[in-house]
Each structure stands twice: as structure tokens, then as C-alpha cells.
């Protein structure tokens, strides 16, 4: 029994991720009024709860020192948080990534598609409209007199941060610096 | 504590190595090179520290020595590496949402009409680079002016089709 709880403690970030995934899927499928993003948050909460329970069990079963126990808990929580971030991005890729949408369109077509056929199925107008709707829904933008204005600065901050990172790594501010 | 300290050290080492390599020459397939750098350092770093620097310690904590310490260190570093790969993809390719936000910001207090965005954000800017990426990453080939998926591309499409069906979601994009 002691060995089992020890392994569960070591692997608690993986167990937490499993709880995260299962909770997220169940909420997303069966509680339709919760949006996709809320299901991701609830899944993450499910993962944290499972880790906290495992760590409590480990603490009472093995009685390590409080400092050691706290350090182990923080490490497992940090590892789980990073894994949860990866899962969130996996979901987000399916929701927003152009490459994923393109491979799905190409697979659906079977014998491949020409550039014109691809852009007829999935092109710039759809990409722009979907993103504008998302940003309006999340109050990142507001529409005033048919013109879009920034409402919350969070996305703008992220955009500026990414431009800085692009300059650091790629020595240019965009994929298309002259556009 | 060992895993947290030495995991962070390994990640920082890989990150510094990446910056040095990127400054010398920007790789064509950046993600593949990144994975190689990070996973090589994660795989061999702890063993090198344990075997070749036995007295080495940080804040009085020695390098991982037991199987469990190695396991925890690897788990932590692999998780951070995967998260970094995902984040790096946003640096490598321009996100339409972030381009749009910057366009609205640059338009000033009067804001920006939708048709202005549509004039600048064309298919050649939003779709063509991603199709080129599919070819660079061997997910598709251009056969008689038609884009056709390779087995790798089919695998990716199946993975996301399956997962989005499990979640009961539509096409996305």
C-alpha cells in the first residue's frame, strides 16, 4: 500500500492531467450551457483537486517533514499546471489553428484540393469574422459606428509581447515584415 | 526540491543554447531543432551532472541521484519543454487575432472598419504560409497544383477529428 501511494505521489501530475481531461470532456459534452473555455477551467480544477487528495494521502501515509511535503506538492502542482497548459493549447489548436483546419479540409476532400478550392472552403473572410466575433464576445473589442475599438488591453499586451519575442528570436517583428 | 532546481537549470541551459544557435543561423524547421536541443539536454544533462560533477550542488542540493529524482526531473522538464514548444509556435507564425488587435490599436481612437482588415488580411497572407508549412513539415505534398495529405497529415487530421468528435465540437479554425 505504501509503495502504491508513493508511485501515485511521484506520478500525481500525470494522474491530475487524466482527471483534467476526463472532467473537461464530460463538462463539454454533457453540460452544454458551459462553454468550451469554462469546461477547460473546470477540468483544470478537477486535476488540482485530484493532486491535492493524492498529496494529502501521501502526507498521512508516510509522514514526511512539512518542508519536504510542501516542496513535493509545489513541484507536482507546477508540473501539472504546465501539463494543463499544454492540454489547453491542444484544445485551442483544434478550435483556432489554421493548419489543423486545413488538414481537416484536405482530408475531407480526399483527393486533395487546389489553392482556389481551399480558399473557397476556408479563406480570409471566415478567419477574420470568426476572430472578430470571438473578440467581441470576450469584450476584447467593441464595435462603435461600424468601427472596431480596443476595449480590454490584455490581447494587445500579448500581441506586443509576441512582437518583442519575434524580434529577439527571429530578428523581425512579423512573418511578413513588409506587409 | 532536486527536480525543481535541476529541472529549471536544464531548461535554462537549453534555452540559452537555442538563443545562441538562432543568433548564428535560423533553422528552417525550427520546431524540430528545438525539440532536438531540449530533449538532448533533458536526456543527458542529469546523468552528466551526477557522473562528472559529483560534488556539484546548488543551494546545498545535489543533482538527481535516485530513480525517483530522475523521474521527477524528467517529468517536470518534459512538461515545460512541451509547453515551450507550443508557446514558441506563436512566435514562429503570426496569429491572425494578434495581427488584428495590432491593426485596431494602430488605427488609433477612431477605430478600424472591418473592410480595412479584409483589404490587408488576404488569403495569401493568412492561408498560403500555413499551406507552405504543411509542405515543409511533410504533412502535405503539392501534386499537379493540388495539395494532398501525406500519412503524417492524415494522422494529424484523424487525431483532431476524433478529439473534436469526442468533445462534440464543429470544424473550428
End-to-end distance of chain B: 41 Å
List the secondary-structure elements of chain B in sequence, H or E: HHHHEHHHEEH
Strand order of the largest sheet of chain A: 2-3
Mean of residue pLDDT values of chain B:
89
Overall shape of chain B = elongated
Structure, explained:
The complex is a heterodimer of chains A (179) and B (173). Chain A has 179 residues and is mainly alpha-helical. Chain A has a domain at 2-96. Helix content of chain A is 76%, strand content 6%. In chain A, a hairpin with a 2-residue loop joins strand 2 (141-144) and strand 3 (147-150). Chain B has 2 domains: 2-92, no CATH class; 123-173, no CATH class. A two-stranded antiparallel ribbon of chain B has the order 2-3. In chain B, helix 1 packs across helix 2 (30-52) and helix 2 packs antiparallel against helix 3 (67-92). The longest helix of chain B has 26 residues, at 67-92. The mean pLDDT of chain B is 89. Chains A and B meet through helix 2, helix 4, helix 5, strand 1 and helix 6 of A and helix 1, helix 3, helix 4, strand 1 and helix 5 of B. Strand 3 of chain A pairs antiparallel with strand 1 (112-113) of chain B.
SSE blueprint:
The complex is a heterodimer of chains A (179) and B (173).
Chain A: H1 2-10, H2 12-30, H3 36-62, H4 66-96, H5 98-109, E1 113-114, H6 115-121, H7 124-137, E2 141-144, E3 147-150, H8 154-170
Helix pairs in contact in A: 1-3, 2-3, 2-4, 3-4
Chain B: H1 2-24, H2 30-52, H3 67-92, H4 96-106, E1 112-113, H5 114-120, H6 123-126, H7 128-136, E2 140-143, E3 146-149, H8 151-167
Antiparallel strand pairs in B: 2-3
Helix pairs in contact in B: 1-2, 1-3, 2-3
List keywords for this structure.
heterodimer, A: mainly alpha, 3 strands, 76% helix, B: 173 residues, mainly alpha, elongated
Amino acid at each position: 500500500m505504501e509503495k502504491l501511494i508513493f508511485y501515485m505521489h511521484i506520478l500525481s501530475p500525470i494522474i491530475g492531467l487524466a482527471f483534467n481531461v476526463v472532467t473537461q470532456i464530460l463538462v463539454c459534452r454533457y453540460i452544454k450551457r458551459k462553454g468550451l473555455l469554462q469546461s477547460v477551467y473546470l477540468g483544470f480544477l478537477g486535476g488540482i483537486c485530484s493532486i491535492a487528495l493524492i498529496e494529502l494521502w501521501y502526507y498521512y501515509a508516510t509522514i514526511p517533514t512539512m518542508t519536504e511535503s510542501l516542496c513535493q506538492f509545489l513541484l507536482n502542482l507546477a508540473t501539472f499546471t504546465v501539463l494543463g497548459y499544454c492540454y489547453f493549447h491542444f484544445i485551442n489548436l483544434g478550435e483556432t489553428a489554421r493548419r489543423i483546419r486545413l488538414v481537416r479540409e484536405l482530408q475531407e476532400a480526399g483527393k486533395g484540393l487546389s489553392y482556389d478550392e481551399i480558399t473557397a472552403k476556408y479563406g480570409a473572410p471566415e478567419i477574420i469574422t470568426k476572430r472578430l466575433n470571438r473578440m467581441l464576445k470576450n469584450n476584447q473589442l467593441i464595435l462603435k459606428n461600424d468601427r472596431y475599438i480596443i476595449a480590454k488591453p490584455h490581447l494587445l499586451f500579448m500581441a506586443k509581447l509576441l512582437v518583442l519575442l519575434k524580434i529577439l528570436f527571429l530578428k523581425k517583428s512579423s512573418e511578413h515584415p513588409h506587409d | 526540491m532536486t527536480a525543481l532546481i535541476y529541472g529549471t537549470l536544464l531548461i535554462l541551459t537549453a534555452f540559452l543554447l537555442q538563443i545562441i544557435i538562432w543568433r548564428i543561423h535560423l533553422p528552417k524547421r525550427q520546431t524540430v531543432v528545438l525539440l532536438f536541443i531540449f530533449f538532448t539536454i533533458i536526456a543527458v544533462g542529469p546523468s552528466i551532472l551526477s557522473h562528472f560533477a559529483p560534488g556539484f550542488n546548488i543551494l546545498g542540493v545535489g543533482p538527481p541521484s535516485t530513480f525517483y529524482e530522475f523521474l521527477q526531473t524528467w517529468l517536470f522538464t518534459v512538461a515545460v519543454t512541451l509547453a515551450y514548444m507550443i508557446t514558441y509556435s506563436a512566435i514562429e507564425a503570426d496569429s491572425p487575432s494578434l495581427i488584428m488587435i495590432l491593426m485596431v490599436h494602430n488605427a488609433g481612437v477612431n477605430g478600424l472598419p472591418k473592410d480595412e482588415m479584409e483589404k490587408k488580411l488576404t488569403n495569401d497572407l493568412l492561408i498560403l504560409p500555413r499551406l507552405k508549412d504543411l509542405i515543409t513539415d511533410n504533412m502535405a505534398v503539392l501534386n499537379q497544383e493540388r495539395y494532398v495529405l501525406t500519412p503524417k497529415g492524415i494522422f494529424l487530421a484523424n487525431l483532431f477529428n476524433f478529439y473534436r468528435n469526442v468533445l462534440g465540437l464543429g470544424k473550428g479554425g
